[in-house]
Amino acid sequence: MKLTRRDFLKISGAATAGLALGGLGFDLSPVHAFSMELRTKDAKETPTICCFCAVGCGIICHTGKETGQVIYTEGDADHPINGGALCSKGAAAYQIAQNDRRITKVLYRAPNTSEWQEKSWDWALKEIAKRVKKSRDASFSVKNKKGQVVNRCSGIASVGSAALDNEECWPYQAMLRAMGLVYIEHQARI
Q1: Nearest-CA neighbor of 97 among 75, 126, 71?
Q2: Would you state the pLDDT for residue 42?
Q3: Exposure string for 43-69, b = 16+ CB within 10 A, e = fewer
Q4: pLDDT in tens, 39-79
Q5: In angstroms, rounded to a whole number, what is the distance separating the alpha carbons of residues 69 and 118?
Q6: What beta strand segments (E) does the chain contain?
Q7: Which of 11, 49, 69, 98 has the greatest number of C-beta atoms within 10 Å?
Q8: Is residue 88 domain-shared with residue 120, that is, in the same domain?
Q9: How many domains does the chain have?
Q10: In which domain, by residue range, is 60 found?
Q11: Do residues 136 and 82 share a domain?
């Protein structure tokens, strides 16, 4: 048998590695793996759409059976748009529901002040409705310059959200058109 220098180095290296691993107590017997129970084991899975942009990536939202709280989110591998992949915002969507710094109360800052005040949800909804009505009444036109009936409101515009599905978009745009809005746009088209 002809032994070349290259073969000698290979054999020497393998023998040295074997001795080193044997001396360290390397054991090839089967290892019993330590595993934890997944927190999503008994969770309810609900498919949803990412709320951050107009792409509409699919997300699976895992909620606890007893609490109903979001415990985990992941990309939906069966979704035709993203195939399970998520951007950094979509991957962090879990933090929308699980964030102790999230504001859960209505905060209002009056004009020309620097202090925020806590207000009730009833107050906020009534205030929004009052301001929308005031803006609509101030900018509503029954007829145009030619005398044609137009019934339009040019003082309010709407940019819809990509987080709305078709079933939510239809009543929303119907309400806007009933108010006479002309400037109705959607985030997906911008």
Answers
A1: 71
A2: 86
A3: beeeeebbbbeeebbbbbbbbeeeeee
A4: 788 889 999 988 887 788 999 999 988 888 888 899 999 99
A5: 25
A6: 44-49, 58-63, 70-75, 106-108, 117-119, 140-143, 149-160, 181-186
A7: 49
A8: no
A9: 2
A10: 44-97
A11: no
Residue 82 falls inside a structural domain: yes
CA separation for the pair 58, 82 (Å, rounded): 7
Q: Can you give the pLDDT at residue 157?
A: 94
Q: Is the pTM of this model over 0.90?
A: no
Phi and psi dihedrals of 24, rounded to 5?
A: -85, 0
Q: Which of 178, 132, 177 is nearest to 156 (CA)?
A: 132
What's the distance, CA 136 to chain centroid? 32
pLDDT at 168: 84
Q: Position 51: which residue type? A: C
User: Nearest-5° angle of CA 51, CA 52, CA 54?
Assistant: 90
Predicted confidence (pLDDT) per residue in 128-144, tens digit: 999 999 999 999 999 99
